[in-house]
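Below is a filled-in request sheet from our internal design queue. Each sheet records the structural input a requester submitted and the sequence that came back. We keep these sheets so that new team members can see what a complete request looks like end to end.

REQUESTER: design group, bay 2
PRIORITY: normal
MODE: inverse folding
CHAIN LENGTH: 234
BACKBONE (tokenized):
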């Protein structure tokens, strides 16, 4: 039986406006290496067959990350677009020929092999899944004037992370519809599938450490996670 090809699309095209400073967040140093390299290493050592990296700094990524750290599963580096969905679509087009695809934010450096394995196992069964964690806080919806309007049932509320995994044909069809109709308010890949009503998206447990580094405060937290991991290994 022919092996089912699995591709990881890693998004590193963000502008980093909320981080401030001159260097984009995905290239900031974390634990002595570029932040982006941490998630790439997990995919490099995982059951994923190849990686498509979406970045507008192709030469920098090729020389300073892919070649420097030996990420030979990175087969293509493609430019991103103006919005996240544009970048994902570019990655999907470059990933043609695979059976399953995992889409991951390169600014989430604390991806684990366990999360990748769970995502692959789940997508094979359900065709669509998203990693997340149950929320810890009470979540309220506000009205347009900023007053509390309703409270979401916390036991059913999840904070969604990446990777999100899909059968390739399913997510490509979802994004083709998205790119044609251009609806507003689509903030992740699961929503693209939900928008087209193509499939139900299975939620699987991620990790509270699987944070997205977006603001300077997140770097402080990320460095603390790195320091704790180093202590565990010493």
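RETURNED SEQUENCE:
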């Amino acid at each position: 039986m022919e092996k089912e090809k699995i591709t990881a699309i890693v998004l590193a095209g963000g502008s980093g406006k909320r981080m401030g400073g001159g260097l984009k967040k995905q290239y900031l140093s974390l634990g002595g290496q570029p932040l982006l390299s941490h998630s790439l290493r997990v995919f490099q050592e995982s059951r994923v067959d190849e990686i498509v990296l979406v970045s507008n700094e192709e030469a920098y990524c090729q020389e300073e990350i892919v070649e420097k750290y030996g990420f030979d599963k990175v087969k293509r580096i493609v430019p991103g677009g103006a919005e996240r969905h544009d970048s994902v679509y570019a990655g999907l087009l470059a990933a043609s020929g695979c059976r399953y695809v995992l889409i991951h934010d390169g600014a989430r450096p604390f991806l684990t092999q366990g999360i990748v394995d769970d995502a692959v196992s789940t997508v094979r069964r359900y065709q669509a899944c998203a990693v997340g964690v149950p929320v810890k806080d009470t979540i309220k919806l506000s009205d347009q004037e900023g007053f509390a309007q309703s409270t979401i049932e916390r036991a059913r509320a999840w904070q969604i992370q990446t990777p999100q995994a899909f059968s390739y044909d399913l997510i490509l069809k979802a994004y083709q519809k998205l790119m044609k109709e251009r609806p507003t308010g689509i903030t992740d890949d699961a929503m693209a599938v939900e928008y087209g009503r193509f499939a139900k998206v299975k939620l699987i447990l991620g990790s509270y450490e699987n944070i997205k580094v977006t603001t300077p405060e997140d770097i402080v937290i990320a460095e603390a996670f790195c320091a704790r991991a180093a202590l565990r290994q010493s």
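SHEET NOTES:
- The helical segments are 35-44, 58-67, 84-94, 113-126, 168-181, 189-196, 216-233.
- The first helix runs from residue 35 to 44.
FILED BY: M.R.
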